[in-house]
User: What shape does this take?
Amino acid sequence: MSRYSLLLVFALGLSTQVFAQQKINYVVIDGKSYQGEQLKWAASHPNALTAPYLDKGNWYVVPRSADGHYWIPAFINGFPVTFLLDTGATKTSIGARIAKNAGIRAGVSAQIGTANGIGSAMQSEGNYLQVGAFTLSDVPVMVSLNQANSDMALLGMDVLRHFRIFQGQDSIQLQRLN
Assistant: This one.
């Protein structure tokens, strides 16, 4: 074995030894308390989630998320958006970044009242919205012009009024009204 090969073997031995002694820090985001080996287990075993689905009775079933909210995958003008179902919102609202990606070009200037106060917005008309298997045409959408809300998407009562709504313990279900 040459002197260089011996140095390489020695260097590799040192590097694996350094990595073996490296302390691993975990970050817990689910709010639970894990001890010892439970941390390693939790880091490699995510909770499997159930995606929203259309059941046999034509109800769109949306499971409650870990944060307690209902997040609904949808499409606005063909662009995929995940909306927060918000029964306290009068209008369906999206942020400016989502609006641009969804092909919204302009709208009528407006002021909107939110939980955070009054904000600048615009109202876009003529949009189509697909929620699960259901498509709505000519949907008005408020676009928040506040930069902090650029990725916000709230599904409000102006859209939800087209559905029968049932809230169970772990899901909310929507069924299109005729």
Observations:
- The first helix runs from residue 3 to 21.
- The domain at 53-176 is CATH 2.40.70.10 (Cathepsin D, subunit A; domain 1).
- The CA atoms of residues 64 and 171 lie 5 Å apart.
- The chain has two domains: 3-43, 53-176.
